[in-house]
Amino acid sequence: MSLRMRMLALIGLFLALLAVAGAAVMIANARDAVRAEMASALDLGIAVGRAEAGRRPSPDAVASLERLGLRHLRFIAGEAPPDSLGEGDAGHGVVPGWFAALVGVTPQAHALTGSDGRVLLTVVAEPQDEVAEVWEDMRDLALAMLVAGLLLLGAAWMAVGRALAPLARIEAAVRRLRQGVYEPGPRDGLAGGGVPELVRLGTGIAALAEEVAAAGRENRRLGQRLIEAQDRERRDIAREIHDELGAALFAIKVDAGRILRLSEEPKPEAFISERVEIAGRARAVLSMAADVHRLSRRILVRLRPALLDQLPLGEALSGLIDEWARREPEVRWSLDVAEDGTPDGIDGLDEVLRLTVFRLAQESLVNALRHARPTNVSVTVRRLPDRVEVLVTDDGPGFREGPGAAEQGGLGIAGMAERVRALGGTLRIGPDGGQGTRVAACLPCVPAGLEGVA
C-alpha cells in the first residue's frame, strides 16, 4: 500500500471511529430521553384516563381519550393482554429492528381500577414514535457525515498528493545516484515545493549528489595526476638507466675490451707499461661497477624502500635522516619518535601504515630541499592508541596556505594526499607560524574500510 493510501486509510479509520463513538453517545442519550418521555406521557395518560373513566363507561372513555390525540399514549378498555402492547405503533415499520433493540425501551402500561377493584382502563405509553424520530435524526446525521467524510477524503487525497509530489523526484534522483549519475537531472528539482521535511530531505540529497559528483571529479583528476606521476617516474627511471647506467656499462665494456686486447698482445717489451694500463683499466672498471651499484640501489629505493624490509620503522626513519645529513651537512636535522601508551609503538603498525609514514617523511624531506633552502628540518612521528601523527617542519621561505596547497608541490604531494585520504586520514600543508613550511598528517591506526576485519 502506498503512503498516500495509508494516510487516507488512517483518516478514514479515524472518521469511522468518530462516527461509531458519536452513534453510541446518541443512542445512549436517546435511550434516556425516550424513557423520560415515556414516563411523562404515562403520568399524563394516567391523570386524563382516571378523569374520563370516572365520568363514563370504559368504551366511551377510550373513544373520548383517543379523540384527544395524546402523543405516545394508547388507551385500552379493561385489562389489556400482554401481546397487545405494541399493536398501536405507527412508526414501527420505518425503524429497523436492530436500532429499536439498541435503544431498548419497551412500552409501559398502567391499569386504572374502580372502587370494586375491577380494571376499568389500561393506559399504554409506547416509545415507537419517539424511537422513529431518533432514527430519522441519526439517519440524516449519518448521511451528512458520509458526505462530509467523502469530501474530506477527496480533499485529503489532493492535499497528500501535492505534499508527497517531491517523493517521486527524490526517488528518481536516488535511482540516478544508484546508476552512477551524480549530476542533477532536468526534472529533479529536489529543492522545490512540498512539505518542509521533504524539502529538507531533497535539499540534503541534492547536496549529497553534488558532493559525490565533486568527489568523483576529484578522484578522476587525482587518478589522472597519479597516472601522469607514474609515467613521469618511469621516464625518470628510464632516463637514469639510459644516461647513467648505460654510460657506466658502456665504459665497463670499453675497459674490459681494452684489457682483453692487452692481455692478448705477444710483445713482452712493453709489458710494464701495459701492466700499468691494465691496472688503471681494472680500477676504472671497479669504479664504474661501484657507480652502477649505487645507481641500482638508488633506483630500487625509489621503487621500494628496502630499509623497511630490513629495519623497524623507527630505525628506517633514522637511516633516512642520516642519509640526508651526509648529503646536506650544513642543514640541522632532527627526528623525534613519540609513543604514548602503545606497547609496540610505531613498529607495531601494519605494512600499509609503515610504508605511508615512511613515504610521507621521505617526500616531505625531498620537497623541503627541492623547493626551499632551510637550515633546520624537523621530523616528528607520534603514535597514539587510535592514530599516528606525522609532522615535518622546516624554516625555508614558506608555503602558501589555502585549499589548493596540496597541488602546489607537484605530483609528489598530490600522491601523498591521495594515499592519506585512501587510508581515511587528513593531510594539511601550510606555513609554520609565518615562516617555513609545516606538513601535518593524521592517519587512523585501522585504515578506512577495514574496521570490521578481525
TrEMBL record:
Transit peptide among keywords: no
SMART domains: HATPase_c
This protein's record includes keyword Ribonucleoprotein: no
Domain Histidine kinase, chain residue ranges per copy: 359-447
Ranges that cross the membrane: 141-160
InterPro entries registered for this protein in UniProt: HATPase_C_sf (IPR036890), HATPase_dom (IPR003594), His_kinase_dom (IPR005467), Sensor_HK_TwoCompSys (IPR050482), Sig_transdc_His_kin_sub3_dim/P (IPR011712)
Keyword line: ATP-binding, Kinase, Membrane, Nucleotide-binding, Transferase, Transmembrane, Transmembrane helix, Two-component regulatory system
Single GO molecular function: ATP binding
SUPFAM superfamilies named among the record's database cross-references: ATPase domain of HSP90 chaperone/DNA topoisomerase II/histidine kinase
PANTHER family linked: NITRATE/NITRITE SENSOR PROTEIN NARX-RELATED, SIGNAL TRANSDUCTION HISTIDINE-PROTEIN KINASE_PHOSPHATASE UHPB
Protein's UniProt name: ATP-binding protein
